[in-house]
Write a structure and sequence with these properties.
single chain; alpha+beta; 10-stranded mixed β-sheet; 3-stranded mixed β-sheet; 17 strands; globular
Length: 463
């Protein structure tokens, strides 16, 4: 047996989001909510959504095609393709098999992998599977392509503003600019009914909002403590929040992310040596007796540690929230939209050598905390510079989206609800505002077979 491939990680990264959005301030007014409930209370600015012209297949077709074109990847260079999604439109046929339409014309059918599902965690599971494949005896020297995509919609009510939609594709292989750290990953899985989708005739989930937040924070505590233990064992040094240059989270809504960073500081506080606590955590003596399992909804604890981590949040986490605040919760791509955002907001020299902590959570529940070390190679034309340059092409698209009035947004969701799983079906949504290079649904026949076409790519080559 040979040695493991070195520096396995992400070579290419692509993000797709819908070309229309609803403004959260407008939605507050429309819903009769108090001013700032969605924008300040949730930390959301805009929410992307899909008309009946887009589904999970079209989102994933678009993001995969974009990545392959933008990075000039040969179709035959892909040896594994796995999709993480919780947007299920067929109980048997995988999204992965639909994506094979892109590879078949090139004579490429030898591609391992299939779909992986557990709420918002499926994309991370697919990513871990890709890493394991590259590091295994099954690896054939080719890249793995990981696709995360979802359409997050909620029934009318308090959860609807936390929706979103999008897809991320990641090209995984050795000698990468974004390298996954070995031997420190922490995972926490248990049984809970915090968020689930038992009604297979509907896109809408069943949600226990309070339990969902408790499960998220509990999973975060457990993963962080195990990661710290693994880090100390590997590096023979004490771990705390200061070991990460950036910290990214799965983002149901941006305010929860800010609270989650504060939660990690609380973990550090309670794990610290009491005699050193006063110097490291000034003015927090009142919380010496706090128990993590009793503090999920303790406003005093929350407020104190939010204040304590205010500057840390601005530096280490806020740069990762651009996409989350502008598009919403994309479910499986959410965490990786955070990685895209970080690359958009940092220069190559700022990123070089950084250690990035990533927390992934999926209800039901499954969660992991893992880390990426960015290559120190910041030279122009190097792998890191190329990755950052290509990611920059995503940012202008946020400003090129079309704003839709809340009334029209609701009408689109009602249309999706009414025609969910209907066959035969002819979509009625327009295609004139779709981004160049976007795949869209043309029809569903009487046998529920779906057919797609693609908006032509812009002549300047930008997609």
């Amino acid at each position: 047996m040979g040695s493991w491939p070195e520096d396995v990680g992400i070579h290419a990264l692509e993000l797709y989001f819908p070309s229309q959005y609803v403004d959260q301030t407008d939605l507050e007014t429309h819903d009769g909510a108090s001013a700032g409930k969605y924008t300040i209370g949730l930390g959301q600015e805009k929410m992307g959504f899909c008309t009946d012209r887009e589904d999970i297949n079209s989102l994933c077709l678009t993001v995969v095609k974009r990545l392959l074109e933008k990075y000039s990847v040969d179709y035959g260079a892909i040896g594994r393709l796995e999709v993480g999604t919780e947007t299920i439109i067929d109980k048997s046929k995988s999204v992965k098999t639909v994506l094979m339409q892109l590879f078949e014309p090139h004579g490429v059918t030898d591609i391992e992998g299939i779909d992986t599902t557990n709420a918002c965690y499926g994309g991370t599971a697919a990513l871990f599977n890709a890493i394991s494949w590259v590091e295994s005896s099954a690896w054939n020297g080719r890249y793995a392509l990981v696709v995360c995509g979802d359409i997050a919609v909620y029934a009318k009510g308090s959860a609807r503003p936390t929706g979103g939609a999008g897809a991320v594709a990641m090209l995984v292989g050795p000698n990468a600019p974004l390298v996954f750290d070995r031997g420190v990953r922490a995972t926490y899985v248990k049984h809970a009914y915090d968020f689930y989708k038992p009604d297979l005739t509907s896109e809408y989930p069943t949600v226990d909002g309070k339990l969902s937040i408790q499960c998220y924070l509990s999973a975060l505590d457990n993963c962080y403590q195990l990661y710290a233990k693994n880090y100390t064992k590997k590096h023979k040094s004490v771990f705390d929040l200061g070991c990460f240059d950036a910290v990214l989270f799965h983002s149901p809504y941006c305010k929860l992310v800010q609270k989650s960073l504060a939660r990690l500081a609380l973990n550090d506080f309670l794990a610290s040596v009491p005699t050193e606590r006063k110097n490291k955590f000034p003015n927090l003596d009142n919380f010496n007796e706090v128990k993590l399992t009793e503090s999920y909804f303790d406003r005093d604890v929350e407020k104190a540690f939010l204040n304590f981590t205010k500057d840390t949040f601005e530096v280490k986490t806020k740069p990762s929230l651009l996409v989350a605040s502008q598009v919403g919760n994309m479910y499986t791509p959410s965490l990786y939209g955070g990685l895209v955002s970080l690359l958009l907001n940092k220069t190559v020299s700022e990123l070089a050598g950084c250690k990035i902590g990533l927390f992934s959570y999926g209800s039901g529940l499954a969660a992991s905390l893992f880390s990426i070390t960015v290559s120190k190679d910041s030279r122009e034309g190097g792998p890191l510079a190329k990755l950052v340059k290509n990611v920059q092409l995503i940012k202008p698209l946020l400003g090129q989206r079309h704003k839709v009035a809340p009334e029209k947004f609701e009408a689109y969701l009602e249309l999706r609800e009414k025609n969910c799983h209907k066959a035969p079906y002819e979509p009625s949504g327009g295609v004139e505002n779709l981004f160049p290079g976007t795949y869209y649904l043309t029809r569903i026949d009487e046998l529920h077979r779906r057919f797609y076409e693609r908006i032509p790519v812009a002549t300047n080559g930008h997609i």
